[in-house]
Amino acid sequence: MDFKDSDQDAAFRQQVREWLAANALRRRDDEDLRTNESALLEYSKAWQAKKADARYACITWPEAWGGRGGRLIEQAIFDEEEEKLGLDTGVFTIGLGMCVPTVMAFADKATKARLVAPALRGEQIWCQLFSEPSAGSDVAGVRTRAVLADDGSGDWIVDGQKVWTSGAHYSDFGIVLVRTNPDVPKHKGLTMFWVDMKAQGISVVPIRQASDQRDFNEVYFNGVRIPDSQRLGEIDGGWKVALFTLMNERVTVGGAMGAGWRDLLKLAQGLPGLGGTGTAAGDGAFRARLAEGYVMSEGLRLTRLRALTALSRGQTPGPENSIGKVVAARQMQVVAYEALDILDQYGMVNEMGSHSLPGRFQWNFFWGAAMRIAGGTDEILKNIISERVLGMPADIRVDRDVTFKSLSERRASSG
Amino acid sequence: MNFDFSEEQVLLKEHARRLLEAECPSSVTRKVLEAPHLGFDKSLWKHVVELGWTGIAIPEEFGGTGMGHTDLCAIAEELGRVVAPIPFVSTVYLFAEAILQFGSEAQKRELLPRIAHGELIGCLATAEGPGYFSPGKAETRVVKGRMTGTKFPVTDGGTATHAIVAARSESGPGLFVVNLEGEGVSRTTLDALDPTRNLAKIAFEDAPCQPLDGGRNAGDRLAVLLNRAAVVVAFEQVGGAERCLEAALTFSSERYAFGRTINSYQAIKHKLADLYIKKEIARSNAYFGAWALSTNAEDLPRAAAAARIAGTMAYEFAAQESLQTHGGMGFTWEMDCHLHLRRSRQLALCLGALPLWREQLISCLEQADLIESGA
Ligand SMILES: Cc1cc2nc3c(=O)[nH]c(=O)nc-3n(C[C@H](O)[C@H](O)[C@H](O)COP(=O)(O)OP(=O)(O)OC[C@H]3O[C@@H](n4cnc5c(N)ncnc54)[C@H](O)[C@@H]3O)c2cc1C
User: Fold this and answer.
1) Which pLDDT belongs to residue A35?
2) Whose CA is nearest to atom 30 of ligand 1?
3) Number of neighbours of residue A78 by Cβ within 10 angstroms
4) Does B200 share its domain with B236?
């Protein structure tokens, strides 16, 4: 076992560091980037293009698509170094982490040729149109309907509503999961498409969040015409495609999020201690909680490295990676409360708009709560760990062998 | 032993609940949330004053109704349920209490009737920036009856007419009464994590002030004041936690996932059972606190710390997990989950954060242990 970089990896890390030092544009926590969305998008696009020019965007993607054909460990090294400087804004995470890989796996050659490169360069942004008002955890329960147009064109006409779609208001494209057949059990009647968000009949309404920001949206489909060439995978085979996307989601959103224990220690060192002596970092109880926080987040980082080791040996990573998001999201929340506690009354002053340490922990305060829900709730992820990893029996499923139609009827009559 | 509210208090609570359901639906709280410059909801405040709640624990000779602190606790629980957007904690549990406990006869005569009649809004100003405040280190100074220094954040400091300020004078740390509408006071409103409670920075420049109780022993006096308020705030926390539980119960009975209502999943059942457990533990600790408060028991510091810790744990857990139970809906502005998320944090910080109270509780336990073991 060796947690140091191999010679090859160390050389790569050095090269990345030098490149970042020479090319970094700005930090994502600059004040205007936190408060001004168009400034954020402009910076994110410029940074992504810069990375793409140097083949540091999507390092593992084939060179033909604009990647570097690199190894996963190289991507991990780049991410670590980029994160140290706070350069990545997350604007492309959903698109490049989930949507575009799905397009690459399921679209035809011409489509890929048209869409992949601009996405990688950050010229186009993608969103994930899965959840609906009555289908979040149970995303196979989507009701948005796609029916074949009656003009014989082979096009699909889509009607329905998506919700909580992150970034839809600034996205150029999206992948959308719809129901094409209500007369079979719910998983069997779904189809996936990619859509142009500017298509006629799509309207995007930003949702005001608990945090008083507007990152996610309602997306309405009103007679939207989608050519069959935009289908990803088989007709009624959309669930398989969705699972592919969701697998990528669990990997994508497991990384470090928000301010962490390092920032907490820094904050504590600058604040007065209990009883007016020393600093807040000197308090034994605080130190105990900081130690626990360290073990959790560092443990998570090391767990990811174990997965990378497996991958670099050509093995499939073990199930231990499934703990990533459930641990990271809760940690965000825990760390935020600790930080606001040592700020004492000052924790009540909202500094979310600035890049101050208190402001960053307040950001965690809200986003910890959000991340425990987004991309699979804590409860769903623990179900997955217990059932798929530990092999415990699945919950009794009442909706498995009934047609989607009768399922909605049953619910309508009981509710 | 009679470990519950009396029959009259139960009636008072029921009355308060009906009234607040009518007068303070979440739309009223949201009015202040959307327009924090309002500071508080004036018409709700007026109602509360008319009902005599601001004077509940103020003796009749000073214009109050003289009912007592347990009655105040009963009202507090109901105000906590509805996330009331009024300066009740600051005015009633802190300012009025400070005058009642430590004020001179003249101060009582001058100030208490005005609180009972709703003309005076009070606040307590301790913090001087980020981190724990210790009275012995206060930078705010009083020289010859004039105060100079800056306090922030001060809850309700922007809307209050008067403040109790922890400062240092020639005779050491003390508590002082300042008329915030008088000379030498300037105030700026601060952006608040819970915008339904006003927050301000108050700068004093040679502002006239009066010492409270001779202006000495601020540390002890402040501790007594915070202990007393902590008990009442614990009832607000219990009320808030109970409201979160009810919301989660209702939502989970209506929300379907995988063909079943989500309240049929053990993950949700156990979550809400945990919430109930924490809330009941908090309630019991709060009741003990109410007893200690209303009888001026020697045990008050221990009872208050326990009530505060249990109340904070219950309300924060309730707010987090009720939001979690609501899924993506819970993270929208439209749902009330975030009102509780914000208020639970506000209540957890406004009288000093948990680490301070944990420390106090354990010190009390150590002392009690010494006494019992006869050392
Ligand atoms: C910040 C944010 C960003 C998001 N971005 C996107 C996006 O870009 N694209 C997109 O498609 N979606 C997005 N979502 C939606 C997200 O995927 C859903 O909110 C999430 O999957 C939960 O679904 P739900 O909200 O319907 O909650 P529900 O599924 O209704 O769950 C409610 C509660 O019930 C619990 N529950 C449900 N089923 C079970 C079960 N079987 N066992 C135990 N407990 C259960 C849940 O854990 C939760 O606590 C986003 C959400 C958030 C908060």
Assistant:
1) 80
2) B327
3) 23
4) no
